[in-house]
Amino acid sequence: MSSPIDQLKERLYEVNALNAASALMDWDQQCYMPRGAAEARAEQGAVLSKMAHEIFVSDETQAILEKAGSEVDPASEEGALVRVVKRDMDQRTKLPVELVTELSRHGAIGHEVWVEARAESDYSKFQPILEKTVDLTRQVADCLGYTDHPYDPVTDQFEEGATKKYWEDMFDTIRQPLVDLVAEIKASPDQPDDSFLTGSFQEADQRAFSMRLLEAIGFDLTRGRLDTAPHPFCTNFSVNDVRLTTRFKDYLPSAIFGTLHEAGHGMYEQNSPQGWDRTPLAGGVSLGWHESQSRTWENLIGRSKAFWQFFYADLQKTFPGLANKDLETFYRAVNKSEPSLIRVEADEVTYNLHIMVRFEMETGMLDGSIPVKDVPAVWNQKYEEYLGITPPDDARGCLQDVHWSGGLLGYFPTYSMGNILSYQVWNAMAQDLGDLHEMMSAGNFQPILDWLVAKVYSQGNRHLPQDLIRQVCGTGLDATPYITAIREKYREIYRLN
Amino acid sequence: MSSPIDQLKERLYEVNALNAASALMDWDQQCYMPRGAAEARAEQGAVLSKMAHEIFVSDETQAILEKAGSEVDPASEEGALVRVVKRDMDQRTKLPVELVTELSRHGAIGHEVWVEARAESDYSKFQPILEKTVDLTRQVADCLGYTDHPYDPVTDQFEEGATKKYWEDMFDTIRQPLVDLVAEIKASPDQPDDSFLTGSFQEADQRAFSMRLLEAIGFDLTRGRLDTAPHPFCTNFSVNDVRLTTRFKDYLPSAIFGTLHEAGHGMYEQNSPQGWDRTPLAGGVSLGWHESQSRTWENLIGRSKAFWQFFYADLQKTFPGLANKDLETFYRAVNKSEPSLIRVEADEVTYNLHIMVRFEMETGMLDGSIPVKDVPAVWNQKYEEYLGITPPDDARGCLQDVHWSGGLLGYFPTYSMGNILSYQVWNAMAQDLGDLHEMMSAGNFQPILDWLVAKVYSQGNRHLPQDLIRQVCGTGLDATPYITAIREKYREIYRLN
């Protein structure tokens, strides 16, 4: 008879096989599946999800987990595995099947309605969906339990340990400095021109350049791939099978920074310990941590001048239309910042202001201080306050994001945490490694990847997210490095000194 | 409480979801998967197969099947479903788990040894594997049960109702006529030249032309795809998700006829009734029937003069190197026939002789009349007798096929059945539709596809294979149409009259 921990692992391997199959089905659906296959795929996917859930929450698995928990050292790897599984079990068993089914049904219907409402820019169509999202989310909060605010257990699902208070402290540090910086940038007489980044860039050339980027930064193409999909994403079916997607558009930076962003997620996944593969210990520790790594490779590395000191000659050779644009012009163009209406197109400075709007609205909707019927008005007023612009319609306002249609309240702040944390980790790395810009301008990314692997990626899901921040950075989440760095970077770009 | 037949369908949908996921994993592995992912993929695949098997043979499923069987009309669709499931249940429950596991392990090891033995052309390495294949196959035969010959239940797994005697009758009709025709062809002073079919044909052009073929013949690309893989195959995850693969080589016919062959399999799958999707009633009725349809589209249609009367101008435009080759030259080149050593490269005339060798050897090995140690000698002697050539080594002789390494005895004759049956079905169609060549030369494939859908594809797996032959052709399996047609075709090509 095998030990309880081995029995637990066997169970987890079963659940993993089903989840990996579902993930492959999703990847295939977004990259290759013929459109006529959607219905059968949905049916088959539902069967696999149900089986995975039933095996996971079964009495047998719960009994094995209990036994394993009483035998392992909590400080050991196996102790960490038990902790992670217990948390997942706890969350899944607290939510009644009816509520989970209702959420899933609501997500499917809500998505359809949202697509229509956004297309017609008609908030009145979407309002009942959002009301139900809020109602169901309150039920989730009640089931999971909380002391201070219903937002706490809801956001904790995505970022373990986070609360409304935690995010408020984070946003309080960045709100005013960002609003001020946006205003400074807006007032600069020296605005970069990025019009030359839009044009006809051959897809094959974009793809070839993206592949060279991946190889150069250390994404392992023997254990991963790059495909194209309408919305870029990263998924994986094991530590050794990590799939990135990007898209090739008229706007050249789309493929380049999309690829680097997803590669950041991907390298995090690829570098979990092999022995943890197919268990919940493998993979990134939280959404905020994951985003910190996609942003590191996209922004701190990919949007740095040093990076392009190394790559710009290759880019110019690949796209001869760039021949008459010098490095400085290109660097300023890919870092252009201006208040815009759409979050997913926002730059490093304004992005977190978009998130802040959503966070403030989510907490308000959940505790009732912002009635759902007032969402468009409040949204527009906050955009005016933080970004100095007012959406001309709800399609470009409160209807722009998919999240609320599917019931995903509590998710947005992890994007900002990622941006902020990426700078903290970067500073810690610079203390250990010295001049990172010198390395990047020489195309030497290996020490950077090695450091991230040692400190973060190889830790997988072993530690609590906030413990890992302290372990890597020596402090808790702190927005100071982010604010300092982007102030410096953008003052130089906009020649504000 | 739902009816037993509905409960049965629910079970079958569960098994289907797991099998579809496994099939998608296989497709992905052959088309896209990074090589480093193999180990995790194998582990995950094993979990899904085990689950599918356990759900299928579970006491609950058996009880539901029993109940459903007692309630449905055997002549109804649901009766057919119960019959098909019962047959599968019967075969799976008759084989003890240990034997199935042993076969699976033997297949994995056997494949490795075969790859090595073939590379080194060393039969002594492969002999112990083949001995074990024969031994395990005898055990399978004993478990499944038989009256006349151990080959009977073994081949029945692949072609329901077939026996050694059934195949012998089939081969007896074609042996002498084929041997004679091969000799006639060999003696012709007017041999076609096909050297111009090998050269540098751009992959993108081959792909574009293949896609135009698929569209023209009626393969539904909204419910299917074409990808590339080292070995062409067709798989599907539902009636509405049929995946073909082909390969683009220096030898131009490889992609063209590979695509048409797989499209034949694919259109058979695509045209099962929608209501049968995700149940075992959907899909081709047997291996022989399936091969009859791939061969119909590859050979009777794709290698006809009429087909190229319609498509040759497009092909010449796509590959300007063909400009100085006229239609007749091209038609004769793609129908060149000559005794060769390798089955998978064989033409329409010689192909079945390759199969006959294998069939005679399989029955002999199984009943002990051909000792496994004598396989190379017997093989070479039969090639000399039927094809007039002797393999210079075992790599190009008895070590060429993958089948025997994995335990697949009893499978080969279904290839010949496909070739033979395709001509019977073709004659039946010509009686209904009139001049098929006129249709094809006008690019009018719709009536042909419609007829095949009505008579064959829409029947899915509802009837016994041999009943379907009688239903469609009015007789049992009969090689006369095949022999008559290829004699006529090749006498014209080789100018033997």
Topology:
Two copies of one chain form a homodimer.
Chain A: H1 4-31, H2 38-57, H3 59-71, H4 77-94, H5 97-120, H6 123-144, H7 151-156, H8 164-187, H9 203-217, E1 224-228, E2 234-238, E3 241-246, H10 253-270, H11 287-301, H12 305-318, H13 327-333, H14 351-367, H15 375-387, H16 413-433, H17 436-441, H18 446-455, H19 465-473, H20 480-493
Parallel strand pairs in A: 1-3
Antiparallel strand pairs in A: 2-3
Helix pairs in contact in A: 1-2, 1-3, 3-4, 5-6, 8-14, 8-20, 9-10, 10-11, 11-16, 14-15, 14-16, 16-20
Describe, in plain words, how this protein is organized in 3D:
Chain A has two domains: 1-94, no CATH class; 96-497, Neurolysin, domain 3 (Orthogonal Bundle), CATH 1.10.1370. Helices cover 63% and strands 3% of the residues of chain A. Chain A contains 20 helices and three strands. In chain A, strands 1-3-2 form a three-stranded mixed sheet, with helices on both faces. Chain A is globular. Chains A and B meet through helix 1, helix 2 and strand 1 of A and helix 1, helix 2 and strand 1 of B.
Helix content of chain A: 55-70%
Task: Tally the structural domains of chain A.
Answer: 2
The backbone outline of chain A, from C-alpha atoms, is globular
Order of neighbouring strands in the sheet with most strands of chain A: 1-3-2
Seen as an oligomer or otherwise, the chain set is homodimer
User: Which pair of protein chains has the largest interface, and what are the residue counts?
Assistant: A-B, 40 and 40 residues
Order of helices and strands of chain A: HHHHHHHHHEEEHHHHHHHHHHH
Strand content of chain A: under 5%
Number of helices of chain A: 20
Instruction: Using the coordinates above, name the CATH class of the largest domain in chain A.
Output: Mainly Alpha
Instruction: Please mark out the parts of chain A with pLDDT under 50 across 5 or more consecutive residues, or reply none.
Output: none
CATH topology-level fold name of the largest domain in chain A = Neurolysin, domain 3
Radius of gyration of chain A: 23 Å
How many beta-strand segments of chain A? 3
